């Protein structure tokens, strides 16, 4: 490893904990890096530096769709301080990349397919010089009409050599002739949400003496990124190393690979370390967003409110490239009926390319969009039948043993009725007082509302479901090593800490299994065996499972000599608070004494049971596990101005097992708040494919003042027997459910249909009161 790389590695390592803390599973153990992050001393990629550092800048397309006539880099190359300018001609290996489908060029060569697509990159001795050089590159475009309506993509000329249709899933379940006495229909639209990652997207590339390169990135899937980079650079994977720096939060793919790849190319070209720190505008232009979705629904029910059939069409706008759109579509189609028993379902799903910004993995993809639509349909059914919305849902909820529309039997705990009853029965919040001192409680904040008598309160419900781990035959596997020496344990696992708390969980697992208080989790790089990406609760299940198995193997190594000495099996020995005792009290010693200066270690893998792809009729055992959530939303709506205030969100969730109470509550509250943004404020506007206001001024994220009172009223701990520890994913499902619940509450307050997210003010205005 080079000296420069060593400097960066040291900077990225979190400080070790020195204070004695409560430990083990079920305890609210704080994050090891919590203090450093709170004090602002935690090092992120944007903080890294190396000797002889150059700075990079990327030239991006100002058009959504255009033919590239010529690219003139001459002026940029002649600028003082510029060390390299690269285009598609300088990519020595595979010129395409992509998370799911590798269909995106590193640099556009003949055609630009979306606003912000990379054209060229520059390395210079100063960041301002790099930016000016990028701006000095002259690109002649022939501007083309963009295809921005996904419905037009079916008839439009192919935007990509692979065509406009990425995937089509026809789901057929039951009797197509079945019909109900009551029928309701709806057309729904979900907007484009940006993941808006906290902190700058940044990276550092350092060339190696062997002709390879080291990349220091906030990667959430380092081995996949390493393999993509190696193919792009025409190098073997062992000559490309990714070191994961501090990740400042991730609710989606943390960084665009098109941002990462030019770094290594420039470092290899110049022989110098190269750093790139993206502006917020570049982040908006480069990384993927939530799929905008168009949904058409028809629900059939009998006179008692029991669902008979659901018909739906789901159209995902993938943007210019496929990315993970095929996976998102599978989730959308599979969960299009929600956590309800539906004997007959006929769903058509499509994901198509357009000239809009690329869409990809964002927490709860696919499931969030359909949840908003099917819950709107349940509200319509309840209104038409004259039933309480919660009661209608209770008559149809899914339970363990029921069959999903994809034909898969629900074998995991599915306490949907219990969750819904918990939020329904939770006391409602008090009404705001009609006094000047309490005006801030009204929609819009101080002086933001009209007359208090224009405010209406609404109560609504949302039931959501998500899958955990990958789906449709994805090989989910993770490897971990646990080492113990001198009373200190070390965990080596390539599971990236993205804010979900894996490093804390790994420490707790080892503490619980080995009774050792001091546990360190090593920094992540690609010299370690792969652990996969950090999404859908993977690391809690798969990587946590690998850590547990490795720790148990070390435990056996530790206890076997003692068991043999005293003539008993290791099952008769237990480790508690650093002490080893036998069932009969004959043996009592400490872990440190039993170690006797030895170093013990073990490596283990965790691989959940396999799944299968959906077949031609949308049928198959596609998912390893499912998680469920119920939310009751209470909102106040100014029906003259259309402003909405979320008063309270009551949450009941199926968690399997609580491993860290404080961490779990924080994940649920964060997911709910993200859902508030989807429901009310977050909409990345792209007229004619151009991102309007790509900054946090034009894109309205919810702030602390927008966060409602969140009441976690019930956490159902019914362990999933196939999951390590029995725990379930907790962060995605509130994101999926909260927008649907808020929209339901606005419908209850206004009587308006509310068929679009985010909810626009005009959708909440009542003119005929």
Automatic annotation (TrEMBL):
Pfam families, per database record: Ald_Xan_dh_C (PF01315), MoCoBD_1 (PF02738), MoCoBD_2 (PF20256)
Transmembrane regions listed in the UniProt entry: none
Protein known as: Oxidoreductase
Domain annotation Aldehyde oxidase/xanthine dehydrogenase a/b hammerhead: ranges: 39-145
Gene Ontology MF term list: iron ion binding; oxidoreductase activity
SUPFAM superfamilies reported for this sequence: CO dehydrogenase molybdoprotein N-domain-like, Molybdenum cofactor-binding domain
